[in-house]
Specification:
alpha+beta; Beta-lactamase; 3 domains; five-stranded antiparallel β-sheet; 24% strand; elongated
Length: 468
């Protein structure tokens, strides 16, 4: 009996221990699931995102509408190829035939579509780079432009700075991680996306969901290329948890994906939202939620961006730009581009004010179209945009008198009046001299006449023999 009781007690202890163990395991699992979900998505500036950095950029106003860690530097991965193809489009003929070299095939951890000795056009290399993100295609394009990828990287950083990317750094054309590091911020990537997708060649390629590449000497049957930007037509891809479906988004007209070897993803898209072009970037995202995050940001832009056209390109404003040392003292200016701002819901257009500010150091010569000032746009006393004011005509350097602030017209008038005064003075002097000569001749004639009379009188006296 005693043994039976002892056995029951032991069984209860075992069951209790098993139960406690299950509870502990369940709590650990719940904690891990909660933590995993937190890592995947959390509220960031009002939007649940897995991305560690993101930005929404309105192209027409060149303003950032929304951002989260927009100036944080991340690995851009293959969205680097947008910048690469922009430079290529500006420097090479699309029909130029390139012969693939071994230099472009020497890439770590990457699958090469191209074959050494393959003859292929620049256009098809760009399709390979932008649609299916072939790294060797991007490197071959870089070599075609600059001879080496290092030399091309110099062009990349110059171009990035030119379009306003002050926090980015590129060391290769394809975006593969390198020891020295490729870096870009979400805000900079938005600018790169805008500049790239405004290029008609890059835009056409990025708008393409499927491309039939023609035959080459190494691919006699050609190839069918499919974009990784599934927002164009919708589609499926394999994530960490299996197959994931992506619905097409009508507003999206182009973009580029990127993924590091650590499966950290990036993406940049251009989309038309409520009549304006908007550029969206996410960085430091997951494979599973990259498309979800972009879709959330597109929806947020759609719901909140309310474009309001303040003025059109060519609009005139009060005042004129002062030109130093110019043939003319002033030049008229007009808006160099349209001005479209986001008008917050409920805000009245009456709150929008525009103040023209002209360059006070503008010096001749000035060419037609040169920027001579800014039209600064305020919304309720807060500056929200500025648009360049451009000269409507050219102003040449003025004559020497322009150094004292006189225009050529004023100089001509002053010179003309001065010349007229001199002419009048000369005429007066000439008339006076003429009158003096006439008076002198008259006096001389009178003297001669008197002398002649005197001579006649003396002669008459001699003839008469009169002494008186």
């Amino acid at each position: 009996m005693k043994n039976t009781t002892q056995t029951k007690q032991n069984n209860k202890k075992i069951l209790r221990a098993i139960l406690v163990g299950l509870i502990v395991i369940a709590m650990i699992v719940l904690y891990c699931v909660g933590s995993f979900a937190f890592i995947y998505a959390e509220e960031k500036n009002g939007i649940d995102l897995a991305a560690q950095g993101a930005a929404i950029y309105v192209g027409e106003s060149n303003t950032y509408f929304w951002e989260y860690q927009g100036e944080q530097r991340f690995d851009p991965a293959s969205i680097t190829k947008l910048l690469t193809c922009l430079i290529v489009a500006e420097n090479l003929d699309m029909d130029q035939v390139v012969t693939v070299t071994s230099a472009c095939l020497d890439l770590p951890a990457t699958w090469n579509f191209l074959v050494e000795g393959e003859e292929i056009t620049v256009r098809d290399l760009m399709y390979l780079a932008l649609l299916e993100s072939h790294n060797e295609a991007a490197k071959m394009l870089a070599i075609a432009v600059s001879g080496t990828e290092d030399a091309f990287a110099v062009l990349m950083n110059q171009k990035a700075n030119e379009i306003g990317c002050i926090s980015s750094e590129f060391h290769n054309s394809h975006g593969l991680t390198v020891p020295e590091g490729n870096f870009a911020t979400p805000k900079d990537v938005c600018r790169i996306a805008k500049a790239s997708l405004e290029n008609p060649i890059v835009r056409e390629i990025c708008e393409t969901a499927t491309y039939q590449m023609p035959a080459t000497n190494k691919h006699p049957e050609g190839a069918t290329l499919h974009t990784t930007n599934l927002f164009l037509e919708g589609g499926k891809y394999t994530g960490s948890t299996g197959e994931i479906s992506v619905a097409a988004i009508d507003e999206v007209f182009g973009g580029k994906t990127g993924t590091t070897v650590q499966q950290v993803t990036t993406m940049a898209v251009g989309c038309e939202v409520n009549g304006v072009d908007v550029y969206i970037c996410i960085m430091g995202d997951t494979v599973d939620l990259r498309y979800t995050d972009i879709a959330k940001l597109v929806a947020y832009a759609r719901a909140n961006i309310q474009p309001y056209q303040v003025f059109e390109k060519g609009t005139e404003f009060e005042g004129r730009a002062r030109v130093i040392e110019g043939a003319e003292k002033y030049v008229d200016a007009v808006a160099g581009e349209d001005c479209i701002i986001n008008l917050p819901e409920g805000a009245s257009p009456a709150l929008v004010m525009v103040e023209p500010v002209y360059d006070e150091t503008l010096t001749a010569p000035v060419n037609e179209g040169d920027v001579v000032g800014q039209a600064v746009v305020y919304l309720a006393d807060e500056q929200v945009d500025s648009v360049p004011l451009v000269a409507v005509k050219s102003v040449e350097k003025g004559w020497i008198f322009s150094k004292i602030g006189l225009s050529n017209m004023e100089s001509a008038i002053i010179l003309g009046v001065t010349a007229l005064i001199l002419i009048v003075l000369i005429w007066i002097l000439a008339v006076r001299a003429k009158n003096k000569r006439a008076a002198r001749r008259k006096r001389e004639e009178k003297i001669r006449e008197l002398a002649l009379r005197q001579m006649e009188q003396e002669e008459s006296q001699r003839e008469r023999g009169w002494d008186y």
